[in-house]
Design brief:
Distance between the termini: 28 Å
Strand content: 15-25%
Helix content: 25-40%
CATH class of the largest domain: Mainly Alpha
Shape: elongated
Order of helices and strands: HEHEEEEEEEHHHHHEE
Radius of gyration: 20 Å
Number of helices: 7
Number of domains: 2
Largest sheet: 4 strands, antiparallel
Strand order of the largest sheet: 1-6-7-5
CATH topology of the largest domain: Helicase, Ruva Protein, domain 3
CATH architecture of the largest domain: Orthogonal Bundle
Length: about 270
């Protein structure tokens, strides 16, 4: 599932490609036909993101709300020459066409039109987003310090922190030498502050570079990443491989439906 920096990059891209101009919106697949009709031809005022949620705000107060989920993707194509716009391929839920570019959305968990006032109903269910300038970590800390759930589960809970996925969760805990099964009540204020500050910095790098970068240069000893083109990591998807710092085999088990990875020596 794409992590929060991916949605913020999409919001910035869509703002550049389609913002402040009319956009043709359709649904070749047909599942979003009514929603597409509601915004087709309207001016896209702005695109923004909160956590893993993307919002396209159109004139007239209507908003397209997208959550990519596990399988959702946007693919872009040139659209300056209408004669060369490609036919939709596969199950395209939503197609947007601007003056110079178009994009197709396939496989999202959510693609719906809501009213501007309903955006707050989505956001109220989410924790602070480390990539937003107005982010306040206090609500996240309040929930963590009162919970006996494992910190590894709390970091993935979008009502606690918005935008954190499995890579950032595992890597953040390793970077701060925290056992993912330690309860939230056992996390100190100083530990949380350090993790929040680090998370903001890491996700800003992801936003700027378009990829997750979590391994410090001095710790990158050339061990292979788990797949070509994927991020090099300390623990994520490195089960049974040696820890980059101590050489202990990385462990993995399922935690609340997702695999968690950790070094039993470094993370106590």
């Amino acid at each position: 599932m794409p992590e929060g920096h991916t949605l913020h990059r999409l919001a910035r891209l869509h703002q550049r490609r389609f913002g402040r101009a009319p956009v043709r919106v359709g649904s070749p697949q047909g599942r979003f036909s009514d929603g597409a009709t509601a915004v087709d031809g309207r001016i896209l005022r702005k695109a923004d993101a909160w956590g893993k949620h993307l919002f396209h705000h159109y004139d007239g107060g209507r908003v397209v709300h997208v959550h990519l989920g596990l399988y959702g993707t946007f693919t872009e194509f040139p659209a300056a020459d209408v004669d060369t716009i490609p036919d939709p391929v596969g199950q395209v839920r939503m197609r947007m066409i601007g003056a110079e570019y178009g994009t197709d959305l396939r496989g999202p968990t959510v693609c719906e039109v809501i009213e501007e006032g309903e955006v707050a109903d989505v956001l109220v269910k989410l924790g602070p987003d480390p990539l937003r300038k107005d982010a306040d970590p206090a609500p996240a800390w309040a929930r963590i310090t009162k919970s006996r759930r494992p910190i590894g589960a709390l970091l993935m809970d979008q009502t606690v922190l918005a935008g954190v996925g499995n890579v950032y969760r595992n890597e953040l805990l390793y970077r701060h030498r925290i056992d993912p099964f330690r309860p939230g009540t056992a996390i100190s204020a100083d530990e949380f502050t350090a993790m929040w500050t680090d998370l903001v910095d890491l996700m800003k790098v992801g936003l700027r570079r378009g990829k997750i970068v979590v391994v410090r240069p001095e710790d990158d000893h050339g061990a292979p990443s788990y797949r070509t083109g994927r991020p090099r990591t300390y623990v994520y998807r490195r089960a049974l491989e040696p820890c980059r710092i101590c050489g202990t085999s990385i462990k993995t088990v399922e935690l609340e439906g997702r695999n968690v990875f950790w070094c039993p020596t470094c993370q106590t």
